[in-house]
Design brief:
The chain is built from eight helices and six strands; from the N terminus they run αααββαααβαββαβ. By secondary structure, it is an alpha+beta fold. The strands form two sheets. It has a four-stranded antiparallel β-sheet with strand order 4-5-3-6, covered by helices on one side. A two-stranded antiparallel ribbon has the order 1-2. Helix 2 runs parallel beside helix 5. Its main location: membrane.
């Protein structure tokens, strides 16, 4: 049988060790993600690590280092599709970027294990854990640091509650007014309200603005016909 003829105990033991290392290190990374209730938790990170490991290990045994390099290139690009699946857009905010980056790193850990670079795989795992845990206090400090809102690049939104029968016309007028005031628009989304009104939500392109100018444009919007109310919101940029 081809299997019996091609089976080599040394190669099998090498693959077993590589997969065991990838499994263990993927578990370490995934456990931290699972503890924080992220979208991609323990099992996902483990499967990414051992999958990348097996592809690279198989290439190593079939084609040597040159074949492994080609497979690593495909792993690097292919894992991006999996990472894209955990990135979600909620209004003007985007979630899941850190989870996607962690999956990318888990694939790198598995690739290192598959290429028999065990020490490098362990070192990378330590750095991934440090990035996801030790940097959290620094992120908190930076987010709470005082800064001028006018000089900070952020995502701003303008919301206007209008009569439903005038929503289409006012959507165009709102866009023209904001553009004329040098507030570039990313998108305007109408949202139906239970009271028979429509809320027009305009998301502005990430920029630095003067709050006084934004307040002035809101006052102009409030005085437009068929406008019930208007306000603006601000969220930190990524």
């Amino acid at each position: 049988m081809p299997f019996i003829e091609s089976f080599e105990a040394g190669d099998f033991l090498s693959t077993f060790i590589s997969l065991a290392v990838a499994f263990a290190l993927g578990t370490v990374i995934g456990a931290e993600r699972q503890y924080r209730q992220r979208t991609a938790g323990l099992r996902t990170n483990v499967l990414v690590a051992i999958g990348a490991c097996q592809f690279v290990d198989m290439a190593m045994h079939l084609s040597g280092p040159e074949g492994a390099v080609r497979v690593v290139a495909y792993v690097v690009s292919g894992i991006g599709f999996l990472g894209a699946g955990v990135i979600m857009k909620e209004g003007a905010n985007i979630r899941g970027l850190n989870t996607a980056a962690t999956l990318w790193c888990s694939a790198a850990v598995g690739a290192c294990a598959g290429a028999d670079l065990v020490a490098q795989a362990i070192l990378l795992t330590l750095f991934v854990l440090a990035g996801n845990t030790m940097l959290r206090p620094l992120v908190t400090v930076l987010e709470r640091a005082p800064r001028s809102e006018e000089a900070t690049e952020a995502t701003y939104g303008v919301s206007a509650v209008v009569r439903a029968d005038a929503a289409s016309e006012l959507q165009g007028k709102l866009a023209a007014l904001l553009e004329a005031a040098h507030f570039p628009i990313d998108v305007i989304e109408p949202q139906d309200r239970p009271d028979g009104m429509v809320e027009l939500r305009a998301t502005l392109v990430n920029t630095s603005v003067r709050i006084a100018e934004l307040d002035a444009i809101i006052m102009r919007i409030r005085h437009m016909p068929n406008i019930v109310s208007a306000t603006w919101t601000r969220s930190a940029a990524d």
